[in-house]
Design a protein that fits this description.
It contains 19 helices and 24 strands. It is α/β, with parallel strands linked by helices and 595 residues long. It folds into three domains: 218 residues, Alanine racemase (TIM Barrel), CATH 3.20.20; 112 residues, Lyase, Ornithine Decarboxylase, Chain A, domain 1, CATH 2.40.37.10; 223 residues, Ureohydrolase domain (Arginase, Chain A, 3-Layer(aba) Sandwich), CATH 3.40.800.10. Helix 5 links the parallel strand 5 and strand 6. Helix 6 packs parallel to helix 7 and helix 18 packs parallel to helix 19. It is globular. It starts with a strand and ends in a 6-residue tail after the last helix. Bound molecules: pyridoxal-5'-phosphate.
């Protein structure tokens, strides 16, 4: 491992979301999930939505754009006022926002009117925490003013507590919110959609049965992401899982050193005067994580006996004396984090973000399955593909654990296999190694698509469990202008040959596997022989080399995430040496290596 990594367990996030949603339902509350702690990671938003939240709430436009670009079309709430320059983006991309300033709402109304829309707002009321909010004395006059703005609709009232002033939500202050809501409803002459009673810090009151009737929304981030580590400090809510995030770094140095620095002391790299306790000689370790990545004080080592002593910009100093089991140079150390530490990790460029669902093991005794049409089947028999796969330790068995191989005459024949794999594996990525974009416009979508429209058809009819942000196209070298335009409009990552020339196939494939595996249960690999330049065959001229193709297949096998594999273009017209090479590629994808 080179860089520090944070792994994000989407199944735990989904579980927490479901737990919170179920609790809220009993009190007539519909929660929104807050993704700002993960920079609006689409996989995290999807996990929350699977858990049942009614919408996603975010604090930043960059994050909202990331969610929308990923095709997430649920209601999105902006958790703060936009800067004046971004009011148009607000009106266009956000369904509802929290507001407390008339001047801004005037501008929102003006822009919304111009765009022919009406923007929903939740008026925030300050109940004493002294962050955002209208002062209760000004509420009536503010509502009357907003009523004169045609582009803004008051959809609700809300409050935010435990943020700046650390004022906790109580039956008393939230009852005040309900009575303010009632006042506003009287002025409007209609019920409000939302009475939004705060963030995760309102959950203890809800659990204790003290939530006043009339509150019908909460905006929950921390409790879903971190299981309430910071919310339920003294009495954990056991139903929540606190371990969705784990930060891992590598030990760069492990040495016995005294616990008191030697020499004249001044100030440290951050202007502080450090204080040390003399514990004698201790075994100390340095990990490749620093203050640029994390608030070190919020780290909780997962290994018993490990203590965090402090950090500089990019070194984390640990006491490893009592580590059980002991730790050596080059080994990994892992940490849980409080919310502040998690936020910094998620915003650090230097920390790799690894969303994941469960990961299954590869190896001996794995099952495989093959499907092919008559011609492809016969060609695979000639090449002895099944026997050679079994020779690698696979057994033929058609169950959901099996790596399934499909041999297709045409690109378009891939589609049912991708679809079946998507359904089988719940959440799946796709890596497509091909020379052609196959994105030509496709007029008749009731018939099977033309070969050169296959990918476009796949994208327009994505199985529900394949998300565009998990699809990668590798090896592109032919694309008509209309295909280029269509590709740019998709959210797919494309590695054209020019980029492979620049970064190398291994790097491209490494990125592709990370993208296709991010938050999925693995990926389906589609391969067209035209991607590869094979001697004496005009079909692949200008493509990746035979060795590079093997390398890509071996990497797919090593990743342990390859669920299924389709090879297209295998028909009677394909010269037999090329068919033989394709059979070798298949073997590499099943983990065959030279040694
Ligand atoms: C961040 C934020 C939330 C979510 O807070 P958590 O403690 O993560 O649940 C809710 N409302 C507003 C206005 C926020 O800024």
């Amino acid at each position: 491992m080179s860089d520090p990594q944070v792994s994000i367990d989407l199944a735990r996030i989904e579980h927490n979301a479901r737990t919170v949603v179920d609790l809220c339902r009993h009190s007539g509350i519909t929660p929104f999930g807050v993704t700002k702690g993960t920079c609006g990671m689409p996989q995290v938003a999807r996990a929350m939505l699977r858990g049942g939240v009614a919408g996603i709430a975010e604090s930043r436009f960059e994050n909202i754009r990331r969610l929308r670009d990923a095709g997430i079309d649920c209601p999105i709430m902006l958790l703060r006022s936009p800067p004046l320059t971004r009011v148009e983006e607000l009106v266009r991309s956000v369904d509802i926002s929290l507001q407390s300033e008339l001047q801004l709402m005037r501008e929102i109304s003006r822009v919304a009117e111009r765009l022919g829309r009406v923007h929903d707002v939740i008026l925030m009321i300050d109940l004493g925490d002294l962050r955002e909010g209208i002062w209760p004395n000004d509420l009536v006059s503010t509502v009357e003013e907003v009523l004169t703005l045609p582009g803004v609709r008051i959809a609700g009232v809300g409050t935010n507590l435990t943020c700046f002033g650390a004022i906790v939500p109580t039956q008393d202050n939230l009852t005040q919110l309900v009575s303010h809501a009632y006042k506003v409803e009287c002025i409007l002459g209609r019920p409000l959609d939302w009475v939004s009673g705060g963030n995760s810090s309102s959950l203890p009151l809800l659990l204790a049965g003290g939530m006043p009737a009339g509150i019908n929304n909460l905006r929950i981030g921390e409790a879903i992401l971190q299981g309430g580590r910071d919310t339920f400090l003294t009495e954990p809510w056991q139903a929540l899982d606190r371990d969705a995030f784990e930060l891992t770094g590598e030990l760069l140095e492990v040495k016995i050193k005294p616990s008191m620095p030697i020499g004249q002391s001044g100030i440290d790299a951050f202007g502080n005067v450090p204080v040390f306790v003399d514990e004698g000689d201790r075994l100390r370790g340095i990990a490749n994580i620093g203050r640029e990545d994390v608030i070190a004080e919020g780290l909780i080592p997962t290994r018993p006996g490990v203590r965090v002593l402090g950090a500089s910009s990019d070194h984390l100093v640990l006491d490893l004396t009592d580590a059980d089991p002991p730790l050596k140079v080059g080994e990994n150390v892992s940490f849980r984090m409080n919310y502040g530490a998690m936020l910094t990790v998620m915003t650090s460029e230097y920390v790799e973000k690894v969303p994941m669902l469960d990961v299954r093991e590869t190896g001996e005794g794995r099952a495989y399955a093959i499907t092919a049409d008559a011609v492809g089947g016969a060609l695979m028999v000639v090449q002895g593909v099944a026997e050679r796969i079994e020779h690698l330790g696979f057994v033929h068995r058609e169950d959901e654990q099996a790596v399934s191989l499909s041999i297709c005459g045409h690109r378009r024949d891939l589609l049912p296999h991708v679809e079946a794999a998507g359904q089988l594996h719940d959440a799946l990525g796709v890596i497509w190694i091909d020379s052609d974009a196959a994105m030509m416009p496709d007029s008749d979508d009731t018939a099977p698509p033309a070969d050169n429209a296959t990918l476009r058809r796949m994208l327009t009819r994505l199985p529900p469990h394949v998300a565009p942000e998990n699809i990668v196209l590798i090896g592109l070298r032919n694309a008509a202008p209309e295909e280029v335009a269509a590709l740019k409009a998709t959210r797919m990552r494309v590695f054209p040959m020019s980029e492979i020339d620049a970064v190398g196939l291994r790097q491209a494939m490494r990125d592709a596997i990370a993208i296709a595996s991010a938050g999925t249960r693995g990926f389906h690999l589609c391969y067209s022989p035209t991607a590869t330049d094979m001697s004496g065959w005009s079909g692949g001229i200008g493509g990746i080399t035979v060795r590079e193709t093997h390398s890509a297949m071996e990497m797919a096998a090593l990743s342990g995430k390859l669920r299924s594999l389709s090879i297209s273009g295998i028909d009677a017209a394909l010269p037999s040496p090329i068919v033989a090479e394709c059979a070798n590629f298949i073997l590499s994808a099943f983990g065959k290596t030279i040694l």
